[in-house]
Design goal:
three-stranded antiparallel sheet, 23 helices, transmembrane
Length: 805
Amino acid sequence: MQKLLRLPLLLALLSCLMTMPFQTFADEPSGQPATEQPVKVNANTELPALQKRLDALKQRASTAKADKQFTSLTDDAQKLIGDADKLAVALAPQLTQVQAQLEVLGPAPEPGTLTETPQMVSQRKQLNNSKTLLTTQIEQAKAIALGAQTLSAHISGLRRDALKTQIALNTGSILGEKFWTPLIDPSDKDATRFDDFGSQVSNAWSQAWSDEWRLGTGIYLILALGIGLFGRRGLDKPMNWILPRWLPQGRFRRSFLACFTTLSTTLTLGISMQLLCYIFTRLPDTSQLVLEFADQLVELTYFSAVIAGLGIALLSNSHPSWRLPGIADPLAKTLASFPILLATFIFIFGIIEQLNALVGTSIAATLFGNGLSALLVALNCLIAPIRVNRMRRKMRAEGEQTEARSTVAGLIHLVISVTAFVILMALLIGYIPLARFVTFELLWIGLVVSSLYLLIHFVVDLCEAVFSPSTQSGKILKSSLSLNDRHLSLAATLFSALGKTSLILMAAVALLNGTFGTTTPLELLAKIAEIWGGKGLEGMNIIPAHAVNAVLCLAVGWYVLRSTRRWLDNDFLPKTMMDRGLRASLVTLFTNVGYVLIIMLTLSMLGIEWNKLAWIVSALSVGIGFGLQEIVKNFISGLILLTERPVKVGDLVSISGVEGDIRRINVRATEIQLGDKSTVIVPNSQLISQNVRNATMGNAQGVATIALTFPLDIDPEQVRNLLLEAYNLHESILETPQPSVSFKELGPTGIVLSVTGYVNSPRMVSATRSDLLYEILKMLRAEGISLSQTQTMILEQPHKAVAEE
């Protein structure tokens, strides 16, 4: 009965719902709808267009390098976010309308209760499909907006990282208002990010100081402060007692103390910071951002501590007599505070830079931190040489003795001053990325060179202490291995050279891999016109590491080659059993190969690919065909002389009427020194293609031969014995083979006797023969024997016959 009563009511409701859409559509043309209709948006075409824009932005972001490209990408990403949000907002009213219509229709009836008309079923299905489509489109629009926001943040990070390499980007002078804006009026986003990070640190500290963790936090805090403040001093006192008692006397004590001071400073400060950070990292609820910041803080502490430790060790104000570099005490005391200040500046502004990268601050805040750190480091590096020069003038005025100035020390002084001035000028004219790059390059190169200087002294002094015959270790090696002092000296030289070479190679790797950049321009000259044309340095895509690495490779390679050549020539090879000529050939060959390798490595560091140098090879081939064949021929001949060694340095040779000693075999020509000390330059090809007399090859002996003519009435046996006696008495004449006298000629002019004796070297023949002639002449006069006189024939013309009368 109740169902029958409800039936008319349901029919009336269905009729109203069916007639409502038709009434709406009928009212629309009149321009007076009952309610305001939402704006129709064609999302089916706009959503794919937005997605294509997002994909295109991602592709452009993956290849962008210049700051202008990042700026354009950021603007496009923000515009995309706005368009996606507008689309989502425009679709929301349509979804609301569809939802209202569905609510009017009500839920679908349960099976077996009431059968809907086909029109109602079709309308409900259509409305549900529209609702699903609109919901999906709104979610897609929001996803595109979220993706664009993520991409914008990623682009900001890429732009922040690119500032480290785009050193030619003019970002504004430090004297401008724009530079100080992040400090005076920070942006809301930066303030929010820093507040969020500060709240995370505050929450971590609150948890660390809670009742559950307070005891451990207090213990770690006390340990960190104790080790950081008193650790190095606590280790310094026992070491001062140990060094004189355990280590042998010599230079090894001071180099060991310097290394220990650097290591103790680094470890105490680093361990102290690790304990402080462990207070937060041990907590279970510490945020990931705080954990990353703690790890970076420890690394920065070790880096800064190494700089401070090296400065303290090299200045050695606590032990002036053990100071490694030759610095006067007043100068060392003047410089005492600068390494600590430098390490402090690096630590503080390194924290700011790392914090900017972690929380994702704006570019303005990043530039502010970079510029301020570069400014303080440059001022520190510029004031230190000024104070040193002022102290030197004061010491000279007071008559005190300053340290002995060297070329290397003066060069370092000049480089630091010029680099600091370049940093300041870059900051003043607005090139903050350039100033940051030069600052960190200066710090890194100074750190590597200082460490190399300290470690080389340590290795050399250690080898000398271990292999010295006067030390306990040297005596043990000498007795156990049956070595003599020469062998120990040779071992000390060899191992110290190996150690220095290894350290130099590691320093070269550190310099090349630790630079703060990626590449440098290979076409600077081509860009000069653009610079003067008004585009400025921003028109160049400068990435600095390749040029810096190439310069470092050239400088380090040249230094290593020169040092190794000097070590081979002066220290190592003279202690071997090689002859002088072989040593000179090895040194020359090593130098030539070294120069070729350095040039190849330098070109590789510049990024020049050898497969792109075909034009150079072609040009060289043409040049060789026309004018370089002689140079190439002499070069190949020089290599043959150095490898086959038909002649070597020190040989007495004779070629084309030139006789003298070979002093040097170069790549193109050979230097021959004559008896009057003049030098003849002979092309190497002549020594290969012509007949050369090598008087000293194979340890040849010299022959001193004298031929004398005596009258026919002398006693040959007496003269023979006299000549042999003169030869045997001379100290240069060898006993084996024995001197001999031969009867050369018997003629009307007299008897010719030739006496022959051997000397150690052909170079001794001339002087020995001269001495023998003096001695023989005195002996002949003493015995009354004269040499045959030259007979002259006088032809007299007969008198002319008297003419017949």
